[in-house]
Amino acid sequence: MALSYRVRDARQPRQAFLDEVGIARGANVLDFGCGPGSYAVPAARMVGKSGNVFALDVHPEALKLTTERASKAGLQNVHTIRSDCKTGLPDGGVDVALLYDVYHDLEDSSAVLAELHRVLKPTGVLSSHDHHLKSERLRQAIELSGLFRMTHQGTLTITFAPERKAS
Questions:
Q1: For 95-108, what is each residue's pLDDT tens digit?
Q2: What angle do CA 153, 27, 103 make, to 5 degrees?
Q3: Domains defined for the chain, CATH in brackets
């Protein structure tokens, strides 16, 4: 599987996806379903030493590959989390949540979207892409949760803002 990711990443570099999001230096990024770190490692370069990337995956081998890639790149700001949903991160501490190429495979998409909503800052963004789903279907599924609203349709990604209930 790692070989297929290398081929995919060579054909279409993952940096282009991250460029659409506009990840800032010092940001905290959650890469939900990080796989072998195709997005986590370039995101860690973007946030710099003052930022953090939390790379979450249910598969231990994916986390091992992510750690190895980050180490090889000399990055110390990539932190792995083994989970299929709960991040263990504090409420409202994440600037950008990445949900790339994983939505179609979620066992409980409602719980995952609720967790992403919980950890995102009020000004944070959810960036999504899934090559297994048409973008319109993905947008509708995420908006149907009532937790997010689309703010931008990019060439590669869809950006959402968290909905906040009025006090």
A1: 999 999 999 999 99
A2: 45
A3: 2-162 (3.40.50.150)
